[in-house]
Task: structure prediction
Amino acid sequence: MTERMEWGTFKLTEFDIQSYANLVESSKQIGERRGVSTSVVSYHLRKLNDPKVNEALELNSNISRIKFSKEKQPQIEQMIRDGVRSCEIMDTMEISGQTLARIRNQMGIEIKKKKKEVAKKPKPKKPTVIESALSHPITQILTKSFIV
Result:
């Protein structure tokens, strides 16, 4: 894993912008080459608000969506039908919990949310016969006179 850059030091070069706009490199490839995450590259590309870059961003987004629905989604759906645990699906398929929930909703599967249990104060227990006898005022007076 590469070391984290100082905040605000990353800048896209003209080469990065042109290679993305001309569909030579993806934001993932630029990120790997420059040592930053894909999301950092995408953020800076969006910030440019360049029509050619925006067109490439939209195209790549559509390609990713189609690729996901053809390749990953059927595998995820099968894992859900097979009863694989959610955390295992998310780790194996590298997806977020929101994505998994969206797929489940598309399949018509509702997640049963567990009700949060509120901690209840314990009911005071009834004193035993011995405890009642010992706490009685007369018993306390008698025991004090014998102890002193």
The longest helix spans residues 51-81. The chain has a mean pLDDT of 85.
